[in-house]
């Protein structure tokens, strides 16, 4: 029974870690230009895949606990934990994407200011700044930072407006609806004031870029100050695991007690609920401090 559970968990984990887009990507890009990511060694690509799908690490851990405790309850808990961990990982990835997008807007402002002061027209300066921002970031299949258009679906409208003399402020305000791209609304306002009132576009964009960079530095400083609080949350989360290890070292067999006795099951359920509530409360407190 233990061997069958181990083999089933390993099969599920290996099936989940397989990249479903390899065949499609190979068909799409096999004849295209060589990209740096395609030259990565297989070990680095496998490591990248493991990092991107870290939620599936719950499966082998659950299988190991099921084998050690001779119970199917860890398998059920592992199956429930996979979507929860995936949700947390994706939320963290979205927060990082918003932060990178905000930094890219500041870079765009600086690039456009440099082009304007070099004598370029506003539309050509914006095109040059967009090309510079698109060249930044990690190259992947699909082009642009992170493999996607960093302005989202509105990037084509911004490019067309800048290239053919369209309504650039309206295109920038449309693109500002994307995650982390709120600074583009300020850029649109500077552009509108410069066009309607004759004010200097370079000066306004310079002040906007300075404000965006200052806000980013403030968030980084706050995150550094909250690193200790996050460490406390991690330590509190690992305390039950340390208790189980200490009990096993003393010969108490805590897994058997928790998984095969009524009192142990009651303590496991109540302790799990209290652990989840404590982690949720602590994370909410730290997240609230980050957003201030």
Automatic annotation (TrEMBL):
Key words of the record: Cell membrane, Membrane, Transmembrane, Transmembrane helix
Organism superkingdom: Bacteria
Membrane-crossing segments per the record: 61-85, 226-251, 263-283
UniProt domain Type II secretion system protein GspF: residue ranges: 148-245
Membrane topology: Multi-pass membrane protein
Signal peptide: none
Protein name per Swiss-Prot or TrEMBL: Type II secretion system F family protein
KW Transmembrane (keyword) present: yes
